[in-house]
């Protein structure tokens, strides 16, 4: 059988080896575990308020996506103001804010998950004058959350980029989150709340479900006792999960690739002669 294959025409040997590779390599990929996305939440919010007695101005814009994969983008910038001359006004205050957030959740193949996330926001709240209830609030929110399940093989994760959370994070409702966690547990691979470069990596056990979350909800508030506040945040992150094939899958890949390489080499030699 071996001699029959060796003595066969080069074109025949090449065709056989190509067929082996075509059949074997997909089997090797199939043996590696899959990464299954079960939930995705991408959100952007720009919420502004200025009020003085009966004079009120608001702005509330938002965008979101729950599609398991694909891009998401939201951008908004605005300002609101009340003055002493407005009807029913008891003073003056203003708020301004902007937020821009984009992300993309992609699976180039069943064994790989890629997430890119970018966000930036700025806010200002100012009390100018007045008595009674005079206040301004500026709230910006950006959030990317992806829940996924690791398949039959363990997986490696990698997080790189930069993260600059809001500076104050002192008002009720302020949130700063950058973490990889198992849902409804305290089990986390990382939990970052300080500014700086990000470089995290590790392994995820086969069969487990995880959530990647980057989320900031930031509010600047001004009133007679605290007349001016401003803040900002931004991030630029890449998160990747790759299933690690078992040795059997690597052996199948070798079985498929090596004969193909040999056949190609022999074909080149025949052409030269």
Describe this structure in words.
- With 273 residues, this protein is α+β, with helices and mostly antiparallel strands.
- It folds into two domains: 1-32 and 246-273; 34-244, no CATH class.
- It contains three helices and twelve strands.
- The strands form two sheets. The chain has a six-stranded antiparallel sheet, with no helix packed on it. Strands 3-4-5-12-7-10 form a six-stranded antiparallel sheet, with no helix packed on it.
- Strand 8 (175-181) and strand 9 form a beta hairpin.
- The radius of gyration is 28 Å and the shape is elongated.
- The two termini are 26 Å apart.
Radius of gyration: 28 Å
Low-confidence stretches: 20-31, 248-257
User: What is the distance, rounded to the nearest whole angstrom, between the alpha carbons of the first and last residues?
Assistant: 26 Å
Average of the residue pLDDT scores: 85
> From N to C, what is the helix and strand string?
HHEEEEEEEEEEEEH
Beta content comes to over 45%
3D shape: elongated
**Which class best fits the helix and strand makeup?**
alpha+beta
How is the biggest beta sheet arranged? 6 strands, antiparallel
Q: Order of strands in the sheet with the most strands?
A: 2-1-6-11-8-9
How is this fold's topology laid out?
Elements: H1 2-7, H2 10-31, E1 35-52, E2 55-65, E3 70-82, E4 91-106, E5 112-130, E6 134-150, E7 155-164, E8 175-181, E9 188-191, E10 196-204, E11 209-223, E12 228-243, H3 247-272
Antiparallel strand pairs: 1-2, 1-6, 3-4, 4-5, 5-12, 6-11, 7-10, 7-12, 8-9, 8-11
Helix pairs in contact: 2-3
């Amino acid at each position: 059988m071996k001699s029959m294959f060796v003595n066969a025409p080069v074109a025949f040997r090449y065709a056989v080896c190509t067929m082996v590779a075509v059949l074997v390599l997909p089997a090797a990929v199939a043996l590696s575990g899959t990464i299954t996305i079960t939930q995705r939440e991408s959100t952007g919010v720009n919420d502004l308020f200025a009020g003085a007695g009966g004079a009120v101005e608001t702005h509330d814009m938002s965008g979101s996506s729950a599609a398991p994969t694909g891009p998401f983008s939201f951008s908004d910038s605005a300002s609101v103001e009340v003055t002493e001359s407005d009807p029913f006004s008891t003073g003056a205050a203003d708020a301004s804010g902007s937020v821009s957030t984009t992300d993309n959740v992609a699976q180039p193949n069943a064994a790989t998950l890629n997430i890119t996330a970018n966000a930036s926001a700025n806010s200002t709240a100012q009390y100018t004058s007045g008595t009674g209830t005079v206040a301004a609030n500026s709230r910006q929110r950006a959030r990317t959350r992806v829940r996924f399940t690791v398949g039959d093989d363990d997986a490696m994760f990698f997080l790189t980029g930069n993260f600059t959370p809001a500076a104050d994070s002192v008002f009720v409702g302020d949130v700063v989150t950058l973490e990889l966690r198992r849902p409804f547990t305290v089990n986390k691979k990382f939990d970052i709340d300080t500014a700086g470069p990000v470089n995290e990596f590790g392994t995820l056990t086969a069969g487990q479900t995880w959530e990647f979350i980057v989320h900031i909800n930031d509010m600047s508030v001004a009133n007679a006792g605290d007349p001016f506040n401003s803040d900002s945040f931004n991030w630029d992150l890449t998160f990747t999960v790759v299933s690690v094939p078992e040795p059997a899958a690597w052996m199948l890949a070798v079985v498929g690739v090596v004969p193909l390489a040999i056949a190609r080499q022999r074909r080149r030699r025949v052409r030269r002669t």
